[in-house]
Hints:
This protein is mostly helical. 73% of the residues lie in helices and 2% in strands. The chain crosses the membrane at residues 50-83, 95-117, 169-187, 215-237, 257-282, 289-312.
Amino acid sequence: MLRRPLGVAPARALSSIGPLLALLAACAFFAARSDRFLTGGNLSLVLQQVMVVGVLAIGQTLVILTAGVDLACGAIMALGGIVMTTLAARLGVPVPLAIAAGMGVTTLFGVAHGLLITSLRLPPFIVTLGTLNIAFALTQLHSRGQTVTGIPAALGALGDTFQLGGTRIVYGAVLMLVLYGVAWFGLRETAAGRHVHAVGGAPEAARLAGIHTRALLIGVYALAGLLYGVAALLSVARTGVGDPNAGQTDNLDAITAVVLGGTSLFGGRGSVLGSLVGALIVGVFRNGLTLMGVSSVYQILVTGVLVILAVATDQLTREGRR
Length: 322
């Protein structure tokens, strides 16, 4: 008689609704500890703080659903931002062309990831670890290690705000939410989206079922690269400069958001909306602890504990499916 691991059912339920419950519990806790937390201005600030990592997490979710991982997303984003700002601010290239060039560079990195992983059968971890260093070096060389200032106003337009019920909302945060809606629809309601889950869950079975796994993986990494370009534009809009040192920890923050959101690191299972919740959990904790005057070291500590709990829950759920 087969024995099921103890605690599997609760772990499975926790994996589905746990991220949202954790977000609500965190909001309730910080609301009780600070009168400023639940104000419209502060919640708008949380959205603004997570919009860059939030968009990176969409691309990271696509990659992780295929049982991959992308360690280079933050470095590629920084390179895209430097390309946009140097072209627009130093060379006088029209803003739309500068944006297209930056996004083109980030997309090319994604295509390279897909080709290396599918053609040479290299592990995604190794490929993206290598391109992380390549992108960082190219960023420093292209910018000469200098922050790019004096960017045209149009390049930072997504950092502008509009009034909604007495609260200023940044356009970039709205764009992030729209992208999540599009990604959710694409993954849930289209054949290509279902193929992404299938390739991550059982790649050989997906291939035998007629899914072109190589083309799909290249497409997933290319789309992730394009999203890193959008994140680069948001980063430039938020800071108002091209920063060659931007995004150095954003790769880990994006992976943290995806894991906290309930997407399995083993691929095939998860929801992109969960990644949004995961990004908000990290943002709420950092914002709330800052309001309480807690050192940033404890914010990192709490984030690490949450990641371990999320991965442990994922592992229990996976064991229960065997």
